[in-house]
């Protein structure tokens, strides 16, 4: 039997499988991030005492910000990748049907991308950053903890809505992959704060995590592609709003019309 990369799927395929999956997963996303030049959000200001109200207001704003026109390109790219990933999906599932294909090489993925572990690590970094004067580090850790909250809400809502059976048959929470979502969210935030030096290892590690979720038969290929797209969009949304200091822009105009006037109001989310 031939796998989608054109190799014999019955032979040892650890390296080939990982390379092919990583290439497909990363095809939609940039290999390097655009490093943020400014950290205008109050959370980045060492002199600002962040309140609980401000924190959860940002969480709500980031949820809403996902549906911003700035994210249309990412959603379109993700939709295209999702469609393409349906082609090799069945062959990949047959390929990964053999138990424990990668042995110990696949084990780290279940921990690296675990949402609970990432939330704990992000929370600890956020607590440490509150004592730091480094605006970039403060902004980075705040974006991470915001991303964990937003990711949890989006992923769990979709899991319960779609009820997709896992390849292993364990339960109906396959879509989307939470591990892939959080891994790509962290990689995107890191890339936007620290540039290509963080982007390259970040996205490579995220692709590895996504691949291990298929190797363990926890997710279909389309689950991890959807998770990667969601994570990328969440990361971009948060960093974009932080650069804009989380503020919306409202503009209005009044034009004469006959004996009266016509007014327009535009509300632009960051």
State the CATH class.
Mainly Alpha
For the record, the CATH architecture stands as: Up-down Bundle
CATH fold node name: Vanadium-containing Chloroperoxidase, domain 1
Q: How many H/I helices?
A: 10
Distance between the ends: 50 Å
Approximately what portion of the residues adopt beta-strand conformation? 5-15%
Radius of gyration: 21 Å
Whole-number count of domains: 1
How are helices and strands ordered from N to C?
Answer: HHHHHHHHHHEE
Helix vs. strand class: mainly alpha
Overall mean pLDDT stands at 84
- Reading side by side through the largest sheet, how are the strands ordered? 1-2
Task: Put the structure in a nutshell.
This protein is mainly α.
Topology:
Blueprint: H1 14-26, H2 52-65, H3 72-85, H4 89-95, H5 108-112, H6 115-129, H7 135-162, H8 178-194, H9 196-215, H10 221-243, E1 249-257, E2 260-268
Antiparallel strand pairs: 1-2
């Amino acid at each position: 039997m031939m796998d989608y990369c054109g190799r014999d799927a019955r032979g040892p395929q650890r390296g080939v499988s990982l390379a092919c999956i990583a290439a497909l997963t990363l095809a939609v996303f940039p290999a390097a991030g655009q490093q943020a030049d400014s950290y205008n959000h109050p959370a980045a200001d060492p002199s600002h005492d962040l309140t609980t109200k401000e924190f959860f207001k940002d969480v709500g704003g980031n949820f809403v910000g996902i549906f911003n026109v700035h994210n249309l390109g990412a959603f379109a790219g993700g939709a295209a990748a999702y469609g393409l990933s349906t082609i090799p999906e069945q062959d990949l599932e047959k390929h990964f049907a053999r138990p424990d294909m990668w042995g110990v090489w696949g084990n780290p993925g279940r921990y690296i991308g675990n949402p609970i572990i990432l939330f704990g690590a992000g929370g600890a970094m956020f607590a440490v950053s509150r004592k730091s004067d480094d605006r970039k580090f403060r902004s980075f850790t705040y974006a991470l903890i915001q991303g964990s909250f937003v990711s949890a809400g989006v992923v769990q809502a979709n899991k319960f809505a779609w009820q997709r059976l896992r390849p292993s048959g364990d339960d109906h929470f396959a879509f989307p992959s939470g591990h892939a979502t959080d891994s790509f969210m962290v990689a995107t935030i890191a890339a936007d704060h620290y540039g290509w030096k963080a982007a390259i290892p970040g996205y490579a590690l995220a692709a590895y995590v996504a691949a291990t979720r298929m190797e363990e038969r926890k997710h279909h290929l389309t689950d991890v592609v959807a998770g990667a797209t969601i994570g990328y969009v969440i990361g971009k949304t948060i960093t974009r709003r932080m650069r804009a200091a989380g503020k919306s822009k409202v503009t209005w105009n009044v034009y004469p019309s006959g004996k009266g006037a016509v007014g327009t109001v535009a509300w632009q989310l960051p």
